[in-house]
């Protein structure tokens, strides 16, 4: 676990500096005061800054795992494994593995998307830098991506045939990117998003002469 030792004119100043360096909130840090500040002799000789040691209690992945486990148990599901599939500096991929977990996915992944959104909110309240948590259940995201790519191709053909725009249902950013990527090299149509979250939608429209896909 990452730990720093920081000095400051006061204990409070040292703590604030250390929390900023670690990028965490005070609630997610263990703080030890190593020494209090000293004014020295007449404020001139032997002055000493305060010194503190600060450690992060949990990193984003650990925080997400604990929160998801607690959340799933509150729903009444106990016989599952929750694993970190992979992670990098800014993104943590977490998989929930078990049987009959449709209740965690919901219609078209709506429950899963809500759980992912809630997890991101809770985790990012503890850190000063943004951490993206991608939550999956029974490999649903991969199956959903395949479905969305096929949907994009089918709707693109309808746009070309009917010469009319098609507006998809509201999607989370992750799913909108799949539609955009699936059609970015299509010679006949382009895509763009419209509206505000959480009702932002993808629009598929005919490409104008000389227009690049995007």
Present the secondary structure layout:
Blueprint: E1 3-8, H1 11-22, E2 29-35, E3 50-56, H2 60-75, E4 81-87, E5 91-97, H3 102-105, H4 110-124, E6 132-137, H5 140-162, E7 166-167, H6 173-183, E8 189-194, E9 201-206
Parallel strand pairs: 5-6
Antiparallel strand pairs: 1-3, 2-3, 4-5, 7-9, 8-9
Helix pairs in contact: 2-4, 5-6
Helices and strands, in order, run as: EHEEHEEHHEHEHEE
Shape, principal axes of CA atoms: elongated
Here the CATH topology of the largest domain equals: GMP Synthetase, Chain A, domain 3
Strand neighbour order, sheet with most strands: 1-3-2
Question: Structural class, please?
Answer: alpha+beta
Number of continuous helical runs: 6
Helical content stands at 25-40%
- From the alpha carbons, calculate the radius of gyration and give it in angstroms: 25 Å
Mean pLDDT: 88
Number of strands: 9
- Classified in CATH, the superfamily of the largest domain is K homology (KH) domain
The appropriate CATH architecture of the largest domain is 2-Layer Sandwich
Provide the CATH top-level class of the largest domain: Alpha Beta
Report the span from N to C terminus: 42 Å
**Structurally, how many domains make up the residues?**
3
Q: Which spans of ≥5 residues are poorly predicted at pLDDT below 50?
A: none
Query: Largest sheet at a glance?
Result: 3 strands, antiparallel
Percent strand equals 25-35%
């Amino acid at each position: 676990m990452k730990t720093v030792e920081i000095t400051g004119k006061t204990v409070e100043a040292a703590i604030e500096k250390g929390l900023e360096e670690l990028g965490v909130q005070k609630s997610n840090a263990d703080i030890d005061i190593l020494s209090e500040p000293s004014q020295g002799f007449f404020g001139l000789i032997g002055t000493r800054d305060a010194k503190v040691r600060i450690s992060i209690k949990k990193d984003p992945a650990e925080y997400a795992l604990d929160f998801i486990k607690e959340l799933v148990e509150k729903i009444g599901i106990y016989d599952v494994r929750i694993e970190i599939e992979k992670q990098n500096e800014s993104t943590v991929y977490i998989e929930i593995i078990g049987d009959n977990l449709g209740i965690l996915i919901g219609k078209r992944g709506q429950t899963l998307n809500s759980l992912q959104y809630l997890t991101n909110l809770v985790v990012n309240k503890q850190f000063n830098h943004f951490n993206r948590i991608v939550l999956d259940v029974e490999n649903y995201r991969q199956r959903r991506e395949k479905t969305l790519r096929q949907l994009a191709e089918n709707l693109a053909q309808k746009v070309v045939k009917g010469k009319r725009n098609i507006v998809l249902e509201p999607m989370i950013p992750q799913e909108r990117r799949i539609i955009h990527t699936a059609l970015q090299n299509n010679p006949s149509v382009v895509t763009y998003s419209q509206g505000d979250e959480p009702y932002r939608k993808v629009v598929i429209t005919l490409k104008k002469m000389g227009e690049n896909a995007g």
